[in-house]
Specification:
This protein is 36% helix and 26% strand. With 154 residues, the protein is of the alpha+beta class. Strands 4-3-2-1-5-6 form a 6-stranded antiparallel beta sheet, with no helix packed on it.
Length: 154
């Protein structure tokens, strides 16, 4: 269901579904005219699509679940670090007998868990999800655009 909205502002993150193309195009909206949609793709190149070929327009907004992902990264990284550190510590301490192997495994698990939790939380906090919602572009084809828009490209 499309939400009736004004055209997203220039620079807005958009995802366009285009007739004849398998994947949606993501980028930043540059300009919308009565017959064309201009955007800058992630790679930095400028794209122009005929309005008639644009099937769907979605506006992207960044989510605020950053803390949630950091916590999940902390837990996941810590668990992986404990397992890897304990296994590595036990392998290193195997030459010194059972007590040395246990001590090295516990120490490796603690160190690995701390390192894993730190790097997992850093990685998790770097994840910023984008939420997409349908919008309609204005002006529509066949309607009169408000004001004068000029686009010059060399």
């Amino acid at each position: 269901m499309a939400v009736r909205a004004q055209t997203p502002a220039p620079g807005s993150l958009v995802r366009l579904s285009i007739d004849g193309e398998r994947r949606a195009q993501k980028g930043h909206l540059t300009l919308v005219t009565a017959d064309s949609v201009f955007m800058t793709a992630r790679e930095g190149n400028s794209l122009r699509y005929a309005r008639a070929r644009v099937r769907r327009v979605e506006l992207g907004t960044k989510g605020d679940e950053e803390g949630e992902y950091a916590f999940l990264g902390f837990l996941g990284g810590g668990a992986i670090g404990i397992g890897a550190g304990a296994a590595l510590g036990a392998a290193v301490g195997s030459a010194g007998g059972k007590s040395a192997r246990v001590a090295a495994g516990v120490g490796g698990g603690i160190i690995g868990g701390l390192l894993g939790a730190f790097f997992g939380s850093e990685l998790g906090s770097a994840i910023t999800p984008v939420h997409w919602r349908d919008v309609e572009l204005e002006p529509r084809v066949g309607s009169r655009a408000r004001g004068l828009t000029m686009h010059i490209a060399f």
